[in-house]
Amino acid sequence: MPIIRVEMISGRTREQKRNLVKELTQAFNRTCGARPEDVQVVIADIDKEDWAAAGTLMADKSPG
User: Fold this and answer.
1) Does domain 3-52 have CATH number 1.10.1420.10?
2) Which letter, b or e, does each residue of 8-29 get, where b requires 16 or more Cβ atoms within 10 Å of its Cβ?
3) DSSP labels for 11-55?
4) pTM score of the predicted model
5) Which pLDDT belongs to residue 52?
6) How far is Cα 14 from Cα 55, in angstroms, rounded to an integer?
7) Which end of the chain is more exposed for a tag (fewer CB within 10 A), N or C?
8) Structural contact between residues 42 and 4, judged by C-beta atoms closer than 8 angstroms
9) pLDDT of 5-16, one tens digit each?
10) 36 belongs to the catalytic site
């Protein structure tokens, strides 16, 4: 059973997540041949205070 793990900063809507898991499942099915019912997708929402890039917390970066 394939598992796709997505880690992203919190803030997406349920509709965005619904569309994401649908698209990921379809893409995996097209490229790897797994049955859609066998594809598992796990979304981990992470607060900006818990994510850093280039030595800076995302919460400390200016928007945009």
Assistant:
1) no
2) eeeeeeeeeeeebbeeebeebb
3) ---HHHHHHHHHHHHHHHHHHH---GGG-EEEEEEE-GGG-EETT
4) 0.85
5) 96
6) 30
7) C
8) yes
9) 999 999 999 999
10) no
